[in-house]
Structure formats: C-alpha cells, structure tokens
Amino acid sequence: MKYVIGVDLGTSAVKILLVNQHGEVAQEVSKSYPLIQEKTGYSEQNPQEWVDQTVAGLSDLLLDFKGNREDIQGISFSGQMHGLVLLDEDHEVLRHAILWNDTRTTAECKEIYDAVGKDRLLELTKNPALEGFTLPKILWVKKHESAIFGKASTFVLPKDYVRYKLTGKLHMEYSDAAGTLLLNVSEKAWSKEICDALDLNPELCPPLVESYDEVGTITEDIAEITGLSPETSVFAGGADNACGAIGSGILEDGKTLCSIGTSGVVLSYESSDDKDFGGKVHYFNHSSPEAFYTMGVTLSAGYSLTWFKDVFASEETFEDLLVDIGSVPVGSNGLLFTPYLVGERTPHADAAIRASFIGVDSSHERKDFVRAVLEGITFSLNESIDIFRQSGKTINTIVSIGGGAKNEDWLQMQADIFDAKIIRLASEQGPGMGAAMLAAYGCGWFASLQACADEFLKVDKEYLPNKDKAEKYKELFTIYQEIYEQTKGLNNKLLEYRK
Ligand SMILES: Nc1ncnc2c1ncn2[C@@H]1O[C@H](COP(=O)(O)OP(=O)(O)O)[C@@H](O)[C@H]1O
Ligand SMILES: O=C(CO)[C@@H](O)[C@H](O)COP(=O)(O)O
C-alpha cells in the first residue's frame, strides 16, 4: 500500500494525516502550540514552534508506521493564511509571525487605500484592505520596527516556512499568495504597481508555484530526525481554506463549505474570476487548477468556544462542556452572543468591535451560555451565507468541517440556522485531507483532483433542517444582526480601557 501525508498547520495545532491510496486515514497526530497576545489586537506565534511541532508530529507518526518508509511517496501542506513570516538574507526568522487574527493594522489599511486607491486595489487583488491580510502587516513592521525591516530580504506565509525548513527550498503558492494583498489574482503575478505605490521592493516577494507542484524532497537531516525517506516528494500545498475546500470536494460551481476551526469560514467555489461581490467577501485563487473561491470569515469561531472553555471550564474537555447543550431550547432561553472577541471581518470589517452576551438573566445556567456561544458563532457564519444568497447563489447543501464538526448538536444547529442540509464527511480534517490530496494528485495517483475526491471522500452523515427550529432561528437572527450596530459605539468608547 502507498501513502501520502497531509500536514495542516492550523492556528491551534498542527494536524498530520497519513492517508492511503483509498483515502483512508491510517494514522493521525496533532501537536498544539500557543498564541502570543501581548496586547489587545495583537496575535503572534513563534515559527520555530510550528517547525518543532511538525517535526515531532512526523516523528511520532513514523514511529508507529508499520510499512516501508519508501511507501510514503509524497507530503504536502495546508496552512493558516495571511501570517507574516519575515526572513533575512540567510532565511533566518526576523521576528515572531504576525497572524491572520492580528488586527493592529487599521492605519496601514488606510495607507494602502490612500496609495493604491480602493477601486484599483479591488481590481488588482479582488479584495479590500483588511487588517488580517499580509500587506498591512509588512507596512506595520516597516513603520514600527524599521531596524528589523531593514534586514528583511523576503517574506513567506506560515506553511511555506515549515516547508522551507523541511526541504531547504523557498516558495509561495498562488492560493496563499492571494491572501497577501500583493498578488494580481487574475494574472497570477506579484503586483509591481502595488509594491511601487507603497515603496516596497518587489524582490521581497518570493517565487510562486502551483499548489500541486513538486518543490523538492525532504532534507537528509529531517529524514534522519523524522524517519521519513529523503526521497519523499514534497508538494507546495495550499491555504487552509483552499485545502479545506479540496478535502471537502468543493471542486465545482454550486458547492459550499462551512469550516469551524479557530476562525469560521463559509466558502463557495468559483469557476471564474469575474464575479462582482464588491469586496464583501474574500475572492482568492483556489488550489485546484484555474479555479477560484469566495468566502466570508468570522475571526473568532472555534476560538470563542476555546476562550469560554479556558476562562470558565479550563479543566474540562470540549465534550464535557458541550454535553448538555441539546437540553437547552433554541435561543438559549433569551441569551444571545456575538463572537467579536478579536474584532470581526465578515460582514463587519471592524477591528474595534468586541463580543457581547445580551439578555443575561438570573435563571441562566452555564449550559445556556455554552449554547449561546455556539449559536452566536453560527449566526455570524450565517451572515456570510446571507451575502451569498443575496448575490443569487443557491445554498441548500453545505459540507461542514473543522473542530466544530466534531459535535452532533452543533452540526444540527448549523442545519437549523443555515436552513440547509449539512454533510459530515468521514474525516472532519478537511485541510489536512486536502493537503494529502494535493500530494496524491502531485504523485500522479489520479488524473485530476476531482478523480482523487471521488476515491478519497466519503459522506458519513447528513443533518436536515428542522422546520420549526429554522423558523425560530430566522427570527432570532434578525435580533442578532441588530447587536452589531447597537454595541459599536459602546465598544469604541471602551477602546482606551483595553489592555
Ligand atoms: N469536541 C469538540 N466539539 C466542538 N468543538 C470542538 C471540539 N474540539 C475542538 N473544537 C473546536 O475546534 C476548534 C479547533 O478546530 P481546528 O479545525 O483544529 O482549528 P485550527 O485549524 O484553527 O487549529 C477549537 O477552537 C474548538 O473550539
Ligand atoms: O484568515 C483566515 C482566512 O482568511 C483564517 O481562516 C485563517 O486561514 C486561519 O484558519 P484556521 O486556523 O481557523 O483554520
């Protein structure tokens, strides 16, 4: 039997899947790492921790592997998007990576609009300037840490750095490059116009490859430490949402994905780059050939639940914390939650907004709060579904992946709030599976990613919307939507009191 490995460098952990030629997950390893949050709005990670935990995870995997290491033919990567990893001329890391959920760059977003023009930026990159994207982070370092920036010779994104450390070869691929705000998405080329307008040396931008391109093999050193064969082919991989889409079979028009990891994403396949969403949703290159996707992003989806667990139930597992939510009625007995713990992206691009519980009553128990958190996260994702439906898309079936797809009550809640059929696949690890599929396709096992999906992806269970609950959620959703406007001003007044 032959195998491939998919490495998903998430925000909470690196998840590594060993997948056989039939798409069965033979082994699975997860290794976590912390977020570094020095002050409000900041979110960083140490790239060395990604490398150490990936190498440790691969070593664990190989320790338990009973076959010949040469049978593991390929490895590829999926990674949290947008995070800035600045490298010097020896490709040493210059500072901690500034992540996708770091929102310190509101001033730099304005600078980009002033220099490039809002409409021109949308024409070139198909996206607006958002704090989470990479370009504003580059400008922030340039302005606030000029000594460090002076030493920078290039930048990469999180999984590109890990891949570099495993192969010694430095690249970026299109699906992740699209999230930098420096790529001309239609032309698949770095935008010299944007670099020039912002006085950035275009040489900073690394060489571009396709997600399924073979970029090298595992170095002798890494082979020795992990037990992998130095012959293992390494394929570039993709942005975690592009890989999540591949690993969920989102490979043709009309297919929709909901991913609840640290962030939350509603993603729709696009066969062309010519739709006009006016920047309301992100529009990026897919990891499958000549394709694109649009998506709306909730910054704190799974992160809201993790935050609640860390603060109020740190000793419990997610399973324990969620055990009673099925006994709480729709609407959590009058309690609503908005998941704006670190600001928001879709539909409110607002770095200053923060979360609220509305309607707290003396009768509320912990389980009401837990259900309200899940409902708030799901309402927030429903805002993106709303945008897609208003643009004319039909959304009646959604594949759900990520940590949030581990809980059955939450999957049913998604069906009721989205008023759509929810599909759970045999593995909820879409990005890791997508990365493995890129390796399988790259190895030549299949003629296309679709052929690979046909063999690899199996539906495990379907959740149909309950009519009564869906109706109640429609009413509650309109109340939920009011909370943003009602709390925006209050949050702005509280800004100066934050850490
Ligand atoms: N058993 C569970 N039930 C519901 N949600 C869970 C469970 N386990 C983890 N999660 C959620 O999944 C999130 C992590 O999902 P994951 O897809 O691994 O994220 P990432 O790719 O960002 O690292 C956590 O933030 C947590 O809220
Ligand atoms: O910023 C985005 C997408 O634009 C996030 O979706 C990141 O890509 C992080 O993903 P997870 O760690 O939540 O999977």
TrEMBL record:
PROSITE patterns: FGGY_KINASES_1 (PS00933), FGGY_KINASES_2 (PS00445). The record marks 8 as: Important for activity. SUPFAM superfamilies: Actin-like ATPase domain (SSF53067). Residues 257-442 form the Carbohydrate kinase FGGY C-terminal domain. Residues 3-247 form the Carbohydrate kinase FGGY N-terminal domain. Pfam families: FGGY_C, FGGY_N. One of its GO terms (molecular function) is D-xylulokinase activity. The active site is at 240 (proton acceptor). It is an enzyme of class 2 (transferase). Its EC number is 2.7.1.17. It catalyses: D-xylulose + ATP = D-xylulose 5-phosphate + ADP + H(+). Belongs to the FGGY kinase family. PANTHER family: SUGAR KINASE, XYLULOSE KINASE. HAMAP family: XylB. Catalyzes the phosphorylation of D-xylulose to D-xylulose 5-phosphate. This is Xylulose kinase.
